[in-house]
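ok posting inputs for the hypoxanthine job
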Amino acid sequence: MTNVQTPHIKPNGVEIAETILLPGDPLRAKFIAETFLENPVCFNEVRGMLGYTGTYKGKKISVMGTGMGPGSIGIYTYELIHFFGVKNLIRIGTCGSLQENVKLYDIILGMASSTNTNYLHQYNIPGQLSLPASFELLTKAHNIGLEKGAKMHVGNILCSDIFYNADKDAMKNWMKMGVLGVEMESTALYANAIAAGVNALTILTVSDSLVTGEETTPEERQTAFTKMMEIALELA
Ligand code: HPA
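and the output
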């Protein structure tokens, strides 16, 4: 399997682990590999979408950037699952809070992904498909988070195609329906995983609030990110 290449991932013989952490930012993937993994080896540089494989507490794990939006994460996760045999895909990202009680730096476990993208049209579902996270990864992450004293919320998240929305009320009805936070990748990740019978989970740190308008600084995000990272790494 290690000699496989795809248009977007060329590992040159470096193995990709069955469990992979997926930040949006490829430089974040590099940071995670260099900070938390033992013996990290780079497996991808195509389009600067850096990926690494190493070990964490003796277990093999990979980490790779996904880029932003369903289209980008859709490509990478499809190739990881179908060409490289990846079985557990854990997105670690940031989101905007859609609820008053979901505060900056809180962690959200995306139990389900709602969306405004057209990504799901390819499956020709005669209705609205709901997209759950892997129950196994979700419960495991929740238990690890509880042990670490993380402030977590578990529920529905919104995967949006649009960051700068022309409609200033676009989030209003998602908020009313109890959606916890907005990000831009979970639907494509969950759909690809479900269609292939593998496991996926989205773990998010709240980086801004669409309720209060508050934002975090990059330095503050780093600290909050570490807690989320620790949960994700323990899933390996
Ligand atoms: N919208 C979409 N994605 C995001 C946001 C947001 O406000 N914050 C972090 N990721």
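notes: The helical segments are 26-36, 70-84, 135-147, 172-176, 186-196, 218-234. Residues 8 and 43 are 11 Å apart (CA to CA).
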